[in-house]
Design brief:
Length: 93
């Protein structure tokens, strides 16, 4: 196994995307339903990639996609994603 400075015997670090929360917030503020398909169309990010960002723990995407999502939601990076430290007991496969 390769050395990873972010992983130890007792903890792991993952990036959690808050895409679902941002979609829900935009839907509430605009009083309409915002869909993954709409976000895909407006940002140029594939629906498949957006689905993985929203649903896959620790998914890694490009900085271009992060930038496009921040533009679409008019938010900062920390509004879109957060660093989460997990104890190995919390980690599920």
């Amino acid at each position: 196994m390769a050395y990873c400075p972010f992983r130890t015997a007792s903890r792991s670090i993952v990036i959690r995307y808050k895409l679902k929360e941002l979609i829900a917030h935009k839907s509430f503020v605009e009083d309409r339903r915002v869909t993954i398909d709409e976000v895909a169309e407006e940002t140029g990010i594939s629906r498949n990639t957006l689905s993985r960002i929203a649903n896959t723990r620790g998914y890694s995407t490009t900085t271009d996609a992060v930038d496009k999502l921040c533009d679409y939601f008019n938010c900062e990076i920390n509004d879109l994603m957060e660093r989460v430290v997990l104890d190995n007991e919390q980690k599920t496969t």
